[in-house]
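pasting for the record
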Amino acid sequence: MAVTLLATDGATAQVLKQFVLNADGRNPDGLLIDHAALRPGTYRFEFDVAGYFEARGVDLPKPNFLNRVGIDFGVAQADAHYHVPLLVSPWSYSTYRGS
């Protein structure tokens, strides 16, 4: 699945990284932001859900129920570990702060 990580500040957003998840659903390069570079603030993940399911041959209606899923989240402590998993189907999704 293609993913974009953005730093957000109100209505503005800056792309920090774009990548494709591996078969385990993880970034193949490891940490997205190393601990020394992570700053408190607000961020957004954008997941290309429709592209992921279409590439796997899932017969989706047009328009798709879910196209892109955005998760806005905050980093309060830059020295803490942040893991933001997305559990997704063509019809629903959930997320949480993982360990």
